[in-house]
# Entry
Amino acid sequence: MTHQDGSVVVRFAPSPTGFLHIGGVRTALFNYLYARHHGGKFRLRIEDTDRKRSTQAAIDAILDGLNWLGLGWDGEVVYQFAGAQRHADLARQLLAAGLAYHCYCTPEELAEMRAQAKAEGRSFRYDGRWRDRDPSEAPAGVDPVVRLKMPRDRESVIDDAVQGRVTVANEQLDDMILLRADGTPTYMLSVVIDDHDMGVTHVIRGDDHLINAFRQKQLFEALDWPVPVFAHIPLIHGPDGAKLSKRHGALGVEAYRDEGYLPEALRNYLLRLGWSHGDDEIISDQQAIDWFELSAIGRSPARFDFDKLASVNAHYLQQADPARLADLIRPTLEEKTARSLSGAEKDRLVAAMPFLTPRAKTLVQLAENAAFVAAERPLSMTEKAGSLLTAEAKATLGQLHSTLKGINDWQATVLEPAIKLFAEEQGLKLGKVAQPLRAALTGSTVSPGIFDVLAVLGKEEALGRIEDQSNP
Ligand code: GLU
# Structure
């Protein structure tokens, strides 16, 4: 490649016409990593030229999603529509230079051309009938479009950094429209001008844009501008091999946040989706930046795998700072209890994290498992938990309460032998004590290890909960 480190400029250029879906996020991530790897710039351009379909809500979702993912961009956001005047001016320059021309085809003529192509079983291409025609022949009352004169002979070649050398016969590429009849620039024109104005050196995007790249290349050349390096990434497919759809998880990035995935887990998972570094699965952010190269992007579509994402997420949950996790799940707990957690409850929540994370794959599960920490006395019981609290069990809890009251060094390593001894003295199997104890402490029959639960709750709260469920 001709570009030196430090001079690399890439961009993520979403159209704000829908949510920021997972394929878009991966494109953003690859661009981001490429820029960081080379010490270059990662720019963000909102392609809002389609005025009817672009919405502020979609723009906000893109900005929020990228921020949440930690994919910060360099410089100001560029809004494509803001450059419409310059884009139109450049099209007129091409017109003046004879590199573009007015086309006065009526909608009827185009429809006819389309019908004919269909009848002959070929795809539609404008036949260039106004390319060399004298404008004096223009019909009255038709506002012309401006079309680029595409080369007619031979073929066009792109040396794509992912796809390799790709060739297309120039007769496949018709004279594309640069300005519509109302004078507004087309998307294809705006993309090229913006990429040039932003100094973009590498265009990394989904391979659904590969054919556009041939058109864009001609336009760069007509404007006498350097052509950026193109890198077209294969799209993401669903687990069944079909193109990723909603049913497969082609959801907005906010859906992944709501389902309880950590941004670093999503980054790691998406990085591995179509890019590899040996057999490495867990890749830190720094390693990703150090290792990312376009040459390691695969040429075939990657398949989205929810189980894999969940297991990567589980890994990062275990790595995460307990205080951060507690902060992330606190709103869910507070919503459930309809109150703010006390300082003591917040501390308990943090202390519970090491015991809770091995059992959770998402923050949603983590919050469910942590609910006992913030439960209010007297605890409400699940049906199963309630059925464990027989009169006999309640009596056992009453005796256990007296035993535990005498323990001052309230930690799992002290509580465990004490409770085992208690069970032995009562002539009970440990489960006969532990099960009702778990019910009393958590309102449920599933929880982390019972000694850890006791320790996390602290002496006062734990004894209170036991007392609530015991018979004297
Ligand atoms: N706006 C286009 C899209 O969202 C991307 C264009 C490009 O990357 O060149 O698909």
Observations:
- The chain has a mean pLDDT of 94.
- The chain has three domains: 1-74+234-319, 82-188, 383-468.
- The chain has 19 helices and twelve strands.
- The pocket of glutamic acid is lined by residues 13-15, 47, 191, 205, 209 (CB under 6 Å).
